[in-house]
């Protein structure tokens, strides 16, 4: 292992001892993790709250958790120690990870985190920690849905529902950058943001004629339909699809929509569901390349709704659960 340098024996962490509301989150000292041979110890610089972090904390998303469990999935930071068999990293490297805090792994909401080297990626030069942190989960999700699941191609048309949110913004940004025509739904206040992300058209999702408007804007049908709000009005969405259209399902855990089966199969259409939590290290590494390209090129960006210290991790979760208009950053 590389020299420990001035890594303290204890660190401040936000953790739970059992699932519960945000009130279950404690902030206090825990032993600084010692990286295993295949891990890298990272001193964190920027953290962010995702919806899934609140589901893991509450127990709504069941996954193996150590106890005490440090909450949080994503981090940006600097390498301070490298395990003996961990390759590709050196002390001082600026790095990021977006797959801690589930599947038995400790989370990221602490001053230090031991990260498996295969889940750690270099932060591109010139990219600041906060700008990166706010898109790590959302952009990787957008990449998996658009390219692994939907197989989006140049010149295709995609309808993005709830396009101004965390994932929606990244879906618009990556789809537009890939040469797709993007039709977004968002509240009118967010129309300029969506256009800035690359949407060709923006429709108010509360418009009573929403689906008629979408049909007018996609007269040849939509190749991909992606609903970030989890509403899944399939009775109206499926008839909007072009031949071989793909609906992406990635939100709306308890939605039980009516599916117009005939409208689906006569189009050779399909519904593809996925959860990034199931992605393996190869898929995550492929997404990381896209995230880094998007950060370097400026394609990927997000709005920051709030910036809270780690001591206020519970408030950060409450803010996320209240539905913030932008991303909630946490500064360790
Ligand atoms: N499956 C996966 O791998 C995966 C990964 C990441 C996230 N997710 C899930 O994806 C969903 C979105 O995540 P996020 O981080 O993007 O959340 P978010 O930032 O809260 O965005 C949700 C968006 O939906 C919009 N919206 C609300 N009601 C709507 C409606 N009736 N019609 C259209 N849009 C509506 C919101 O608009 P307003 O601001 O106007 O309310 C907001 O822009 C969450 O359920 C999350 O758990 C799943």
TrEMBL record:
Pfam families linked: ADH_N, ADH_zinc_N
InterPro entries from the UniProt entry: ADH-like_C (IPR013149), ADH-like_N (IPR013154), ER (IPR020843), GroES-like_sf (IPR011032), NAD(P)-bd_dom_sf (IPR036291), Zinc-ADH_QOR/CCCR (IPR051603)
Protein name according to UniProt: NADPH:quinone reductase
Keyword tags: NADP
Keyword Iron belongs to the record: no
Ranges for domain Enoyl reductase (ER): 20-330
Superkingdom of source: Bacteria
Organism whose genome encodes this protein: Speluncibacter jeojiensis
Gene Ontology MF terms in the entry: oxidoreductase activity
